[in-house]
UniProtKB/TrEMBL annotation:
Species per Swiss-Prot/TrEMBL record: Triticum aestivum (Wheat)
Catalytic activity: Catalyzes the rearrangement of -S-S- bonds in proteins
Keywords in alphabetical order: Disulfide bond, Endoplasmic reticulum, Glycoprotein, Isomerase, Redox-active center, Repeat, Signal
Protein name (record): Protein disulfide-isomerase
Cysteine-cysteine disulfides: C129-C132, C470-C473
Residue stretches making up the Thioredoxin domain: 94-207, 428-549
Amino acid sequence: MAAMPMPRSLLLILLLATPLLILPLAAAAVPTSNPDIDLEYLIKNAGLDDPTPATTATDPEDDGAPDFPGLDADYDDEDLFGDDDGPEEDSSHPSAADEAHVLLLTAANFTSVLAARRHVMVEFYAPWCGHCRALAPHYAAAASALAEQGVDVALAKVDATEDHDLAQAHGVQGYPTLLFFIDGVPRDYAGERTKDAIVAWISKKLGPAVQNLTTADEAEKIVTGDDVAVLAYLDHLSGAHSDELAAASRLEDTISFYQTTSPDVAKLFHIDPEAKRPSVVLLKKEEEKLTVFDGEFRASAIAEFVSANKIPLITTLTQETAPAIFDNPIKKQILLFAVAKESPQFLPIIKETAKSFKGKLLFVFVERDNEEVGEPVANYFGIAGQETTVLAYTGNEDAKKFFFSGEISLDTIKEFAQDFLEDKLTPSYKSDPVPESNDEDVKVVVGKSLDQIVLDESKDVLLEVYAPWCGHCQSLEPIYNKLAKYLRGIDSLVIAKMDGTNNEHPRAKPDGFPTILFYPAGKKSFEPITFEGDRTVVEMYKFLKKHAAIPFKLKRPDSSAARTDGADGSGSTTEGEKSSGSNPKDEL
């Protein structure tokens, strides 16, 4: 799967506030070498006049997606939970009869089906994808239910491994991807991958913005059937208040809106029949069943109220709920990690805290001893062992995390959540131990040492962020080592690498693996420059010559000794080669 993009900011305030660095006189005095001569020498000695790159930095087949992406709009929760490497039998996989109402689309019939049907939901899937197999029975059941209800919609699917170009044309970056087409125009479906959620979402899209409830029997079905419902108790079923409610409904994709003038219906929704109208309530099937709207009766205010109150006080993270959590407009999260037997001790504290932060924070429970979810998510956050842990997470934009320390109580967690909202917490980053020795040509950087090595204002630094399991990183390693050996002894230049799976830093965010970043001397308040050329010694050298803030000259063997060696044919070693311990030709 292609690597997921991770956004970066320019830190303009820091940039403008940082005084110009006065480089050391010795560094500034380094003469600029003729780049053409240096490059000719490099190519000659490296034997790279026709280089074959390990891969280009923009290779679409890069296997280096971060193991827990920024969870932005393009995220694929295969990366969150892991997945199988190949197909295997699944008892939940539906039979052909189960999928009688699911259309099979290919590049040959895709356009004609969308032209013939005004409303089409399309699932782009891969046969080997575990999440696709889990979705299949829900998707088939949703198709059957909608067909039985006579809803004007078709549910279809495309095997993206067979019709790769078709999937790519629609921006598919992970499996499964669900798109809903209205008159051929797609929009993402980011709801839960369950039958009820899909049916409710489509029904909301195609039905009236607000449904009228006139009898107690109709209301009873809604109260017992809908997971979440909004009811307005009005004087009239048309007019200004009804129009505001309809406008609010269009701003909220996933919740059904109802209106009534009946006191009997109002009672079923726990509204006092004598209450002042208009009144609005939100009803949920959970501990906090009823929430009363007390704001101004305007569409934006009602929609904001619904958005803040529709989600549970705390959501258990599963494969099914992950899209609703990570695609939620509320990005900041408080996560509780606890094993199942200990969770009853802590969940009431988190739930009570959540009541004070509706619409501001999401509260998520991760069952630590759940192998499917708890283990991979804990690994991403750097949580070892099964001790109960509370942390704050900023979500997709910058993916900062903040660990809570101390006794877990209502007062301490409320204070922690409030400090998180007010940006008073110090972020935590994963880091390997700082190596005791770091004398190789390629310097090893860890999270804790990045400030000292990479952000040293007196050095130009090239940093590779890699993953040990990444095939492209393994192919790059000997090439990167050769570059470092060739540039050894240049005091102003550092060639470095960091294991991006075990180390984090806000100034070194990978777009995938490998990511190669350059940090010019005296400009460390700028965002680093990403190397996007062919991954060869020559191309990386040319990149460094172009962007280095401190001019550098290649360290070559003593030329007179080399000529003597060539004249007498003795094969003796030059002083320069003795000092370096090897011949640059052999190294490169």
